[in-house]
Amino acid sequence: MNTSQNERRRYYRIDDYVALKVVALSEAELADRLAQSERDDASTLLMNRLRLQRDKHLPNLRAAQQRYPEIASYLVLLEEQIELLARVVTNQQDDLPDSPTDPVNLSAQGIRFNHATPMEAGDAVELHIKLFPSLVRVVVQGHVVNCAAIGADEGGEEFSIAADFTHIREEDRELLVKHIHRLQIDTLATQTFA
């Protein structure tokens, strides 16, 4: 197994439904997007960092809930208000639907999705992914590693496209890992009690 195959197997993969926007890019456009991505995705970055900080301090909140329930209740209210404000800011610039639209196979290193337009291995892409139910929004850049025709539907032929993430913020990768972990737990719980 070569190094790129080892890389693709570092993270667990799971089937999920997300809102997805796929933008094909030339290599020059990819370089431009990377140069301006910090400015353009400031609201997404804000929301994702707020969520990571909340998750990091969740044990402190749990301890406060046990010792000082009234204060903890107020802290939860403040947290909900901050998240609501951050969502308003994020949604003003969000062009993704508020419900899942696309079946995908997702990991913190890459994604497989269906698309109406074929792509070539090596093509650069930018992917806007909204996860549910958390509404976490992640923007990543990557390269297509595989494209295969999967048949026709009412709209015409469809293609299964696999892409590796080549440019992803560590905060976004961590959010993807946490999201996949939550889905794993939910799946195991469903299987255990079924």
Quickly describe the structure.
This protein has helices at residues 3-8, 27-40, 42-56, 58-67, 69-92, 170-193; strands at residues 14-25, 102-106, 110-115, 124-130, 137-153, 156-167.
Walkthrough of the structure:
The protein has 194 residues and is an alpha+beta fold. It has one domain. Helices cover 48% and strands 30% of the residues. The protein contains six helices and six strands, in the order H-E-H-H-H-H-E-E-E-E-E-H. The protein has helices at residues 3-8, 27-40, 42-56, 58-67, 69-92, 170-193, and strands spanning 14-25, 102-106, 110-115, 124-130, 137-153, 156-167. It has a six-stranded antiparallel β-barrel with strand order 1-2-3-6-5-4. A hairpin with a 3-residue loop joins strand 2 (102-106) and strand 3. It is globular. The chain starts with a helix and ends with a helix. The mean pLDDT is 84.
Q: Tell me the span between the first and last alpha carbons.
A: 37 Å
Mean pLDDT: 84
Number of distinct helices: 6
Kindly name the structural category.
Answer: alpha+beta
| Rg over C-alpha atoms, rounded to the nearest angstrom | 19 Å
Element order, helices and strands? HEHHHHEEEEEH
Kindly state the number of beta strands: 6
Strand content: 25-35%
Secondary structure elements and pairings:
Layout: H1 3-8, E1 14-25, H2 27-40, H3 42-56, H4 58-67, H5 69-92, E2 102-106, E3 110-115, E4 124-130, E5 137-153, E6 156-167, H6 170-193
Helix pairs in contact: 3-5, 3-6, 4-5
